[in-house]
Design goal:
alpha+beta, 3 helices, 9 strands, about 30% helix
């Protein structure tokens, strides 16, 4: 494995804590209704998906995985034509985003630093990281 790093989304952890306290309050004050409990469990499950972002580079692929792995993507290293460190604007948000000017996909859990990769098929992706220089170097070395 050439590179492996997991970034924890501090904002999401904070939001999850606040929601957990709120859920506890709701369960204490409202009658135990199955539909409320089901919704609370579903919301928690979805939010837990975005607590962290793991980036891995092996001999053939760049892989990204949110949380426990429901949301994931992989890129063939042979399809990457360029890589550079970038700063995302605050309004790009966090999570998985499609941005339309310029058209790109953004994968991010925290902060504004990212690595932008351009593919042979002209698609652009931004991968958020707190190690943008290290990730850029690792991708550059892997695609040589």
């Amino acid at each position: 494995m050439l590179y492996n790093h997991t970034q924890v989304g501090r904002l999401m952890v904070t939001i999850l804590f606040i929601i957990a306290v709120y859920f506890g309050f709701i369960l204490k004050t409202v009658e135990s209704d199955r539909s409320i409990i089901t919704v609370l469990i579903l919301v928690s499950f979805i939010l837990l998906s975005f607590v962290s972002l793991n980036v891995t580079i092996d001999e053939k692929h760049l892989r990204i995985k949110f949380g426990y792995g429901i949301f994931r993507k992989h890129f063939a290293l042979s399809e990457i034509i360029s890589v550079k460190s970038v700063k995302n604007h605050w309004y790009y948000g966090w999570g998985i985003r499609a941005w339309f000017w310029p058209y790109m996909r953004i994968f991010n859990v925290s902060g504004f630093d990212a690595v932008e990769i351009r593919m042979k098929d002209s698609k652009i992706y931004r991968i958020g990281t707190d190690e943008s220089q290290k990730l850029e170097l690792a991708i550059t070395e892997a695609i040589k």
